[in-house]
Amino acid sequence: MLRAVKANKELKIDESEQAAMQAQGFDIVSVDDKGKRETIAYGAGKTVPYGNYAELEKKAAALEKELVKMKKTDKETKE
Q: What mean pLDDT is predicted for residues 15-29?
């Protein structure tokens, strides 16, 4: 089952409606029988495409972990 999600709206849609809803700025989410949700397409008109944002979030988290590790190593070296 597909759903179109935007702000506080969530609409059940067919695959034939997917492109039109995406063009209107709705994210397209697939929901399986168990309720597991997976975003399969992001709506148009966003300032930063969500895929790019998610990728940068992962990189930032990895860099923060590396920074903590380096600070710890530096602190141990000074002692």
A: 95
